[in-house]
Amino acid sequence: MNQLQSMRVFVKVADLGSFVGAAGALDLSTAVVTRHVADLEARLGTRLLNRTTRRLSLTESGSTYLERVRHILDDLEGVEQMVVARNHEPVGTLRIVAPVVFGLHSLAPVVQSYAARYPDVMPDVTLADRQVDLVEEGYDVGIMVTRHMRSASIVTRRLTTGYMTVCATPAYLAQHGTPTRPEHLLGHPCLSRPSEQGGDERVFTGPEGEVRVRPSNAIAANNTEMLRQFALLGMGVAILPSYLIGRDLASGRLVPLLGDYRLPQIEITIAYPSRLHLPAKVRTFIDHLVEYFQPGQPSSRDRSATASAFAVTALDPAHDLPEADLHSEAVRPVRNAARTRSAASVSASSPI
């Protein structure tokens, strides 16, 4: 028989002084209750109860055993209650992983608003420009591109769709001209991370259909924040995630280009290790992310211009993939004027 159940039965028999009383309290038959106590005594090799026709009494060993068993069962109940509470109430440490530039530019306000809502949760944020195995490395939540999941046990939830933005400084365009078609990029130095598939080829979709070009990079860099700095210095035409340059577009420091064309989109997802018995801290953080990044939600309307250029990025360092259009209030006028997706968005390039 189950040893813990036998211990519970023994405690109930000792408290009530009766096998029949314990059987009624535990909704068991008297024979089953008797068997549990007998199994305990056989396991321990000692008598725990003195039995007479009129009453039961504890032996010396039974008294000692009862005292210790009470502590064990109380501790076990406390642990179970703690685990249940952690699964139903948002408490404990929440381990989050995201790419570096996304974390530096976009993640902090989301975490701050979540922590304010759930003060018993302590966010533990890791920024990593590499593929991450959530299960092996013990993360609760990751922000990444679905197709780069490395574990079959990973569960994903769609957050938004991503795009990239072609842009340059007004001074650069005044000196070198404004490209209006993807082919025009061949005459300009390009600032972007290379795509893993197809080398540096870029595939645009426009009025005439698909257009493929292979612009030449002006300089190599493994970080899109560095490429942004180069773009602001007028070193060429940049292809960058708009969440990174949302404020630059809104202020006019950078100008969105090729408004009639769009680079391939990609689905940006939240990832977590399992759907079974999902802890409340994970469930509420996922819901908070979705609420925060979906257009029309109160949280998105309440953002400041600085905090509005948010997005989600992938964890794959080999890709420079599209970022999500999040309908940022800060950049909507620029986007509408240029007929391009220049809203706060998501890059799927990991080292960004």
From TrEMBL:
UniProt region (Disordered), positions on chain: 325-352
Annotated Low complexity bias: 337-352
Protein name: DNA-binding transcriptional LysR family regulator
Gene Ontology molecular function, alphabetical: DNA-binding transcription factor activity; sequence-specific DNA binding
InterPro entries xref list: LysR-type_TF_proteobact-type, LysR_HTH_N, LysR_subst-bd, WH-like_DNA-bd_sf, WH_DNA-bd_sf
Family membership: Belongs to the LysR transcriptional regulatory family.
Residue span(s) of domain HTH lysR-type: 1-59
GO annotation terms (biological process): DNA-templated transcription
Source organism per UniProt: Paraburkholderia bryophila
Alphabetical UniProt keywords: DNA-binding, Transcription, Transcription regulation
Keyword Membrane appears in the UniProt entry: no
Highest taxon above the source species: Bacteria
